[in-house]
Every structure is written in structure tokens, then in C-alpha cells.
Amino acid sequence: MAGKKYLTPMLGLLAVASIVIFTAIKPFRHNDKKITTAVKQQAMVALPVLPPELPPPPPPPTIRYTACVFPRILEQAPIVTIEEGIPEICYVLPPPEEVEKPNANQLLQSFFQQLEKPAQEFNIDNARDTILVAREGTKLIIPANTLVSKAGPVKIMMQEYYKYEDIIAARLNTTSNGAQLVTGGMLQITAEQAGEAIKIAPDKAITVQMPTNNYDVNMQLFTGTTPANDTVNSAKVNWISAGRFKVPARKERTLEFLNTDDVQPASVTQGQKTVATFFCGPLVRRAYKKLILEELKDRFGSTYDEIKLKRPRRKDYEVNNEAEHPIIISTKNVEVSQTFGWGALSKTDSLYYVKLLRRDSLSYVNALKREKMYYFTISDFGWVNCDRYWSDSGPKVTLVINLAEGEKASKYISTLVFARYRSIITGYYTDNKICFPNVPKGEPVHLVTVSATGDKVVSNFQSFNLSNREISDLQFEPTTPELHKQKLQSLVASPQQAEKADN
To answer: Measured between alpha carbons, how far is 162 from 138 in angstroms, rounded to an integer?
Structure first.
């Protein structure tokens, strides 16, 4: 009985286990009988359903890019190949874009553009009188309504070129139709309103004052014209003379002279006495009356018994103008220096006036030394230059630069910089030669040459005295705008140039 007592519970447990196992393997059997919802929930809670096993993933593909060159640009196209069971993805790429290298002219233009001085800008009201003072001392005096403009602000732009290195770096020259000039400074002045260029009114003018440390009465105003076929190595500006500056007045010493040596009597009366009447102009001082009569008697005393002086009438002036010899006594002022050869002055008077003229000359020179401005007016905007012609009667020579065989002179910019005075000449270019004709022999100069090779700008500096010579050994070094400006500054600061650097 005891065995039966434990057998019954064990049979119950075995039955429960069988049901659970049957429920778990039910999804993998076909044609199974339905089971109750309660049993299904018990099975899912006891053993969750696992997904079927998947095969292991393949290794990642190796990506290889191949650059292919074809006649035309191709689109990216994948090419799949099988190599040792591993897929390889190969992309056909279009050919790389070729970057066009800048030519020599483009390199040189970019190089010198970086050396250009930025323009100074001033906004003014055209309805008001205006005085502009630029950084380096230039003054513009603009009266009201001088410009042809509309209501609103007007922009005045100015570039100053007084420093020798600035003039050279800007590719400016000092020649007027081939004639050599010496410069005291250059300006470029323009004006615009709302982006459009404006002009000076036809009946108006702007007064310009250019500073100087060494005033020269021979300086003139020149205006600049830009050649129509302007190239990177051509003369940037051609200067045309526009007249002399206003210079300080020089004190004149003059003497009054009577025309009694040439005058003829206005009328002659015959009677018991022969009387000659002479007209004496109103500007003749009364103090001269006695002197005039004495001179006339010396001339005509043997001809006329009596000489009289009389004031002329209006109609007498008409007769005087038509007569072969004047009939009216008048005076004229003559500079003292012109009378020394006439014998009109005594020795004592001559010595007195010589001493007086020397004193006046010294005073004038000292006055010019105190003068710090050149004064002139302009009636149009653009380039202006304070220059004088270089007068040299000495012999002239021709300097020739021979470039390498096959080299084109058009990609070179070569200038002669004079050391004793501020003058710059641009060379003439032909084939593989650069020429400087008719330059003064023996003058110390600096030859500055800039060119472009490959993707670099190069330069050469040489100093020598001018002579008939040919240079064929130019050695160039790479340069930059900053380095080029530094070399120009050291070049013009040489002892020879320092004497004339403040013209």
C-alpha cells in the first residue's frame, strides 16, 4: 500500500511533464491537433520561440578606386569583380581637371597690382567750398558747384606719388613724347557719384598744391595720357606739357625813360620866330618838364627859335598812333639790367644799381627756399605731374639688353632709374632685345628688370654708368611684391640718390 501511496503522485508529475514537452515541440510538427489557449500561453512563457539560424555574413567588400583616362569625361560607374571569392568594387573615376596656369602677362599684372598704392577717398558736398588735405601733403581747393553732379555726396579719389620707390613700383615713367623729364611728384585724381564718373564744370577749375622740399622755378605742369594699346610692359603714362606753375613774383628794378630821342614836333608856326610845339603825355611827371625842354633844345635848338610843351587832345593820340614818329612825349619803364649797355647811367649810378640787383637776387633765392608748394589749377580729372625737362647737351648713348635665345621681350618690364635726379625711362621692346636709346652718357643709373618664368615672378637689379654697351648676363632671382618694394627702398636710399630724393 505504501508503494501505491507514492506511485500515484509520480504518475501525475510524469503526465504534466509530457504535456509540457508535447506543447513545446508542437510548432515543429505537421498535422498536429489543436491545443488550448491556456496551454499555448504556458508554453510560450516557459520557452520563448527562437528565430531560425542564418548563415554567417560574408566579409566586407574591398573597395578599390582606379583612375582611368578616357577621351571624354566619364560618369562614375561601379564594376563588380570576383577575386578569391571576395567581391571587389572598382569605381571608374573621371580624369582630374587640368588647372590652367597663368601666363607671364597675368603673373606680372597681378604682381604690380599688389604694388599699387590704394587710393585715398574723400566724400564732399559739391554745394560747399571744400579744401582736401591728403596724407602726403597734397591740397585740393574745390569751390562750391565746381563739379557737374547731382544732389548728394561726391567721392574724390586721389593717389599720391612723391616717393621715388612708389613711382618705380607703379611702373610710372618720366618722359614726354620721348623727351626725358625730372619729376617732383605725380598725382592721379578722379571723382564719381553713385558709381559714375563725373567731370569739372566747363567754366570751373580746382586749385592743386603739391608739396616740395626743394622748390624749382623750372618745374611745369604736365597732364598724363594712357596709351590705347596699354600693355604690362609699355609706358603707363605719356606726359604732355600744360604750362608753367604760378611762381613767386620777383622784385623788378626799373628806370623810366623819355622818348625824346625819337619824338617829332606836333606843329611848327612860322613868323618872326619859328615855334615848335610838342605834346607831353599826362603820365609824364611835371618834374621832368625842365629836363624835357633841355633835351629838345639840344636836338632842335638850331632849327626852331622857340620850343613849347602842350597837353595832347584825344584826336592827337589817333594822329600819334598813325605817325611814323611819335608826336607825344611819353615814358616807358625799362629793367635796370637792360640799360647797362646803353650808356644812359653814369658809372656811379651803374655801380649802385649792380649792388642793388645782387641784393634783390639773394632775397629772391631765400624766398624760394622758404617756398614749400607748387600751385596750379586743373580743369579735368586724371593724371598730373610736376616735372621739368632734363636739359643735357652732352653726348648720348644706347643701352641694349640681350635676352636668351627664344625669349620674348614682351614678358619683361625693364626701367632705367637715374641716381642723381628723379627720372625714370621705360625701355623699348623688340624680339629678344630691350633698348634704351639717346640716354645721357656717363650718368649713374640702376637697371630694374622684372619678368615671369613658370609660375614665379623674378627680378634683376644692376647699377652702372651709362655707355654704349650690351648686357647679356641678366641673372634673375624669385621675388615677391614685398621683397621688391624693400629692394627699391634700399636702392633709392643710396648716397647718390639721397642728394635729390627730396625734389
So the answer is: 10
Taking residue 459's Cβ as centre, other Cβ atoms within 10 Å add up to 20
Which domains are delineated in the chain?
2-46 (no CATH), 62-93 (no CATH), 110-249+374-389 (2.60.220.30), 254-339 (no CATH), 396-498 (2.60.40)
Please give the span between the terminal C-alpha atoms of the chain, in angstroms, as a whole number.
Answer: 144
**Model-wide pTM > 0.70:** no
Instruction: Report yes or no: 486 and 461 within 8 Å, Cβ to Cβ.
Output: no
List, in order, residues 6 or more apart from 47 with CB less than 8 Å away: 24
Strand partners, 389: 181
180, containing H or E segment: strand 179-193
Confidence of residue 203 (pLDDT cuts 50, 70, 90): very high
Burial label for 257, CB within 10 Å (0-12, 13-18, 19+), is middle
Please write the tens of the pLDDT for every residue from 161-183: 999 999 999 999 999 988 999 99
C-alpha distances in Å from residue 108, one per residue of 103, 226, 246, 469: 9, 19, 40, 27
- What 335-340 contacts at long range (C-beta under 8 Å, 24+ apart), as own/partner pairs, is 335/252, 335/253, 335/254, 336/253, 336/254, 336/255, 337/253, 339/255, 339/257
Do 200 and 381 contact (CB within 8 A), yes or no? yes
Q: Name which of 167, 156, 153, 99 is nearest 133 in CA terms.
A: 156
Please give the DSSP secondary-structure letter assigned to residue 145. T
Q: How distant, in Å, are the alpha carbons of 26, 52, 242, 368 from that of 248?
A: 127, 113, 19, 8
Which residues, at least 6 apart from 96, have a Cβ–Cβ distance to it below 8 Å?
Answer: 67
C-alpha cell at 332: 616807358
Are 280 and 290 spatial neighbours (Cβ–Cβ below 8 Å)? Answer: no
Q: What is the pLDDT of residue 69?
A: 42
d(CA 382, CA 229): 18
Please write the tens of the pLDDT for every residue from 136-169. Answer: 999 999 999 999 999 999 999 999 999 999 999 9
Q: Is-contact 440 399, C-beta < 8 A? A: no
Amino acid making up residue 205:
A
Instruction: Report how far Cα 358 is from the mean position of its chain's Cα atoms.
Output: 43
Q: Which of 13-17, 38-42, 159-163 tops mean pLDDT?
A: 159-163
Query: What whole-number distance in Å separates Cα of residue 34 and Cα of residue 25?
Result: 13
Q: Which residues pair with 349 in a beta bridge?
A: none
360's grid cell: 634783390
Please answer whether residues 218 and 388 qualify as being in contact, where contact means their C-beta atoms are separated by less than 8 angstroms: yes
Q: How many CA atoms lie within 13 A of 429 on its CB side?
A: 17
Give the helix/strand (H/E) hosting 376.
Answer: strand 373-378
79 vs 89: CA distance, rounded Å? 6
Q: Would you state the torsion angle of the CA atoms of residues 361, 367, 372, 377, taken in this order, to the nearest 10 degrees?
A: -70
Per-residue cell: 384:
598730373
